[in-house]
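Reader question, answered in our methods column.
A reader sent in the components of a multi-part assembly and asked whether the whole thing could be modeled at once rather than chain by chain. We filled in our standard form and ran it. Here is what they sent:
COMPLEX SIZE: two components
ENTRIES:
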Amino acid sequence: MIQYELKGLRQVFGRRTVLDIDHLALSRGSSHVLLGPNGCGKTTLLRILAFLTPPAAGEVFFNGNKIEWREKALLPLRRQVVLVDQHPIMFTTTVLKNVEYGPKMRGLPTRKRHGIAMECLERVGMQEFAHRPAHVLSGGETQRVAIARALACDPYVMLFDEPTASVDVENQTVIESVIRDIRSHRGITVIFSTHRHLEAARLADNKLFMFEGKPVGSGGENLFSGEIIDKNGRTVCLVGKNLELDVNANPRGRCRVFINPEEITVYPRIRADEPSPGKLVSGTVVQMTADGDSISLLLDIGVAVRTIMSKAKATESGIFVGDQVKVGFSPGAARIEP
Amino acid sequence: MLWALDPDLYFIVYVSLYVSFWSTIAASILGVPLGFAIAVKEFHGKRALITVLNTLLALPTVVIGLFVYAFLSRRAFLGHLGLLYTPEAIIIGQVILILPWVAAFTLSAVSRIDERYRRTAMTLGAGPVRTSLAVAREARFGILAAIIAAFGRVIAEIGIAMMLGGNIKGFTRTMTTAMALEHNKGEFVLAVALGVVLLGVSLIMNIFLQLVQGRYGVNR
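And here is the structure of the entire assembly that came back:
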């Protein structure tokens, strides 16, 4: 079953188009993650999915029904969907009253909403804070109470805007476990945004990469803004300040370029002088993670580039996190995106 | 004089508190929603309206006195109501005086409230009215300060009370008009006593504000 379907969706702030989605369907009861750099439209999309801001153009379908962006029609929908902000704000009252707010808006009697609120606080491990002022909580505790406050609304869909972006490891673990629990035991559709690929892999059934307001499929993590220029008789795409990638493209100027992770080769620094195809650039290994039978490497070469190598090759190369390496790109590694 | 429980003095204080209280209540009923609406709604001419509102903060009391007199005097449009030189006339004039104060300071208080409060209330299932109430609740200290400032403004004003009340003994004589009269007569004792009461009322109002802010500021 489809929970959300978006058709020709556009959001415009001033003269800038911040969201441009031709078609997107998100299934019910699954966990979806929105990945992408800052300013790629994740928060804007979440606010539209939460029925908080109407799009400039396009159609949104919820459970197959087209959304009418009228206040009267939106209220019943908002009561099925809750958005937890990246930096949630607490009403200036106690933690308990904050969590009771959603049930109160739904007209539940005092005793019942008190019970629901305590139960939800227990789920996030914050029951001892129930009678404390909400505004004195730390960032991580606020995030946990905000999740309890959203849970108390008993929604069908929970939206999280970077839920672990500004919390410590302890709170991050609790939040991740709550999200996992929501997904598996309650059958709630979870849609969240994050920068953390590992977190996305741990929590999400489906990944959606976004770049400059558009969904870009599974290759989105190596997608960059660049500029096509002529240099020494070659056509290159300049990414960041120093990275030059050979491309076959006619128009010059700004572009989006995708670097295929499988077309990137990493050489340990000790072997950097050995002959190798193409021009090499220096970089640092900042992350290594197991990805099925392969190892995924995140490299800092002025921009963050991800590459994949086999476990055997990774073992043979002896590369570790923090190593200085040389990085080569096969011809055709860079592809100009429309 | 204060300790001798002089009935004349206490009646003057009563009239002052009576007209100031009701004018503040009326101005708050009109001004708080007005300021709130201007703060949260986006519409054409919003900036112009805020400029007008801010300009009205400097409205001289004698101008209001003259303006309302023109409507309430015997031969005027509303003359048949017989309101001129009554406490009600003073209240009308004072409402016009402090309405921009209440509205402008409410607008300022609500504008400073974090946008996330509105969004949070909405996503938690609040309708437009409950969302507005949630925002107003967060701005409550600012709104209360606006109302108390307005009360302080009317209890200390003299132009409207004199021109529309007529300073009639035992009927429309307020603390400020009585002080002016006693000063003209050279009766400084009553004038000073009234001055002490006037300052005392301001002090009590501010202590009240501090207590409310302190109480809820700690436990909120």
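What stands out: The longest helix of chain A spans residues 169-185. The helical segments of chain A are 42-49, 71-78, 95-105, 110-123, 139-151, 169-185, 197-203, 311-317.
Send us your own complexes using the same form.
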